[in-house]
Amino acid sequence: MKTKLPAVNPLGLLVFILLMLPLLALLGFGILWLWQSGNLQVWLIAMVICGGLGHGLQQWLVRRERKLLTDTGTEPNPDWPPSTEEVWQKVKALAETCNPEDWPLEDGTWVLELGRRTMETVAHCYHPDVEQPLL
Predict the structure, then answer these.
(1) CA distance 133 to 4
(2) Among 107, 104, 132, 103, which Cα is nearest to 119's?
(3) Distances from the Cα of 126 to the Cαs of 26, 40, 72, 90, in angstroms?
(4) Residue spans per domain, the chain
(5) How far is C-alpha 117 from the geometric centre of its chain's CA atoms?
(6) DSSP tag of 6
(7) Does the reported pTM lie above 0.70?
């Protein structure tokens, strides 16, 4: 199904262009000045070094965050009564059966579906003889 493109507001586009012109002119005149003063190559080298360092740092942070996510685990609240142990085990079993590829981040509806499944699992543990335990 094709999605309709949003209509472009001509006055909004004019405002955007007028706001961007000084920035673009500053960028253009800055590069021209760097070229005339013979510093363009130094600036380009500095940009490549800073970009490479920034990219490397970003990759390191992503790896570190992924490691932190895999190392963390959720434990039951110690203040819960002993009767909740069975419920906790069923919720853990549900979490272990979830495949991350089945829940794409681009589609936000999975959060509601996974939450509904979890609530139904918990409600069924507390009310096993009811037809619709969530209600």
Answers:
(1) 42
(2) 132
(3) 66, 71, 28, 12
(4) 10-72, 74-135
(5) 22
(6) P
(7) no
In the chain, the N- to C-terminal Cα span, in Å, equals 36
Q: Which residue has the tokens 């002119």?
A: 25
At 24, list the tokens.
């673009």
Nearest-angstrom CA–CA distance, 26 and 124? 65
103's CB contacts (< 8 A; 6+ apart) are: 110, 114
Q: Cα–Cα distance between 10 and 67 in angstroms, integer?
A: 48
Nearest alpha carbon to residue 76 among 61, 91, 88, 58: 88
Cα dihedral: 88, 91, 93, 96 (round 10): -120
Q: What is the pLDDT of residues 96-111, one digit of tens each?
A: 888 877 777 777 788 8
What is the distance between the alpha carbons of residues 116 and 33, in angstroms, rounded to a whole number? 61
Q: b/e per residue, 111-122, with b = 16+ CB within 10 A?
A: eeeeeeeeeebb
- The per-residue pLDDT for range 28-79, each reduced to its tens digit, is 999 999 999 999 999 999 999 999 999 999 999 999 988 887 777 777 788 8
